[in-house]
Amino acid sequence: MSSEITGEKVINSKIGQVSSPVTEKKSDEEQHLEHVETSSLNLEYNDDEEEPKIHARTCVALAAMLLLNLVQVVALQGPPAALDYIGEDLSNKAAHAWVPNALSLVQAVVAPIISSASDTFQARKLLLVGPAILSFIGAAIAPGSANIYRLIGAQILIGFGFATVPLAYVVPSEILPRKWRPMAQAWMNVAAALGACVGPLIIGALTKSNHHTGWRKFYWVQMALWGATAIGLFFGYRPPKRHTRYDHLSFLQKLSHNDLAGCGLLTAGLTLLLTGLNLGGGLFSWTSSRVLATLVVGIVTLLAFCIYEWKFTKTGILHHDLFRGGKDRGRTFALCPVCQMIRLD
Questions:
Q1: How many other CB atoms are there within 10 angstroms of residue 73's CB atom?
Q2: Quick count: other Cβ atoms within 10 Å of Cβ 254?
């Protein structure tokens, strides 16, 4: 009898030590929910160890990405080398500074939106091919410019292709196995460096041969490069299937998670600020009311953007996780953009 009682106690003690499957499941769900609430919007793969396989399409896509990086820098560095000739040919030297600045302005305001939307909507291919086609159209419009404003409009269209710079460094790592990714990133930088060298040389040589048609021919060369890039991306790039926590959301719900308020404030602020900086000392004096009003409104709008990203959202363009972790993470990241701006200046 005593042995039966002892056996029951042992069994009861073991049952007490074994946690309920329902409790374990609930605990796992709570941990998962906690992870979702505190994690960033990074993509979640089904199998982290599964790597992409190299196919013929991979080679085409990689070549297109190299060409994209090359033509982006060609478009950026080429026109400034012949800017005086362009302004003289179009009889408007006062506004000729807007030719390269229009490209940079579009890139500054559109690139963050493209980067965010490419992950939220899983539309990376569309956001690469579409802007490349717009740049192709812009490069085709530029050679027929009879005035500076048509050329500036063409540069704005080209700027949309230039705004895909962030994606240009993401895709090679997405389509290649891990061991090839450092080499791919190195070649991307080589392509950019090559573009920085050949862009001014091409437009300089063509303009030297003919001041009227030389710089126009440069845009035909650029058009061919943008066209080849768009074709290569369309046929070669096949984005791997990825999963995010927004897969079950509708289009409007995904749109609401894309930090529209932050994007709007950043776009308006940067546009006004850069416009004021380009108007001052050129078309208008620095003391002009037009310049001062544009600068003040732009600065105030950017301050509103900073306050919004700081106090009203934690997962916007300036995700708070980027600035956490003390001097080893947050401070280092905060210093990187500042150093980058100093280097560009």
A1: 21
A2: 16
For 339, counting Cβ atoms within 10 Å of its Cβ (0-12 exposed, 13-18 middle, 19+ buried), the class is exposed
Cα atoms found within 13 Å of the Cα of residue 58, Cβ hemisphere only: 15
- C-alpha 48 chain-centroid distance: 24
Q: What is the pLDDT of residue 233?
A: 94
pLDDT at 343 over 80: no
For the stretch 49-87, pLDDT in tens is 567 788 888 899 999 999 999 999 999 999 999 999 999
How far apart are the C-alpha atoms of 284 and 289, rounded to whole Å?
9
Q: Output 113 or 229, whichever has higher pLDDT.
A: 229
Cα–Cα distance, 123 to 237 (Å, whole number) = 12
Strand, coil or helix: what is 124?
A: helix
pLDDT higher for 255 or 103? 103
Q: Tokens standing for 63?
A: 């070549």
Q: Which residue has the tokens 């108007």?
A: 279
φ/ψ (deg, to 5) at 53: -100, 145
Among residues 214, 188, 249, 189, the alpha carbon closest in space to that of 41 is found at 249
Sign for the pseudo-dihedral over CA of 178, 180, 182, 188: negative
Cβ(137)–Cβ(128) under 8 Å?
Answer: no
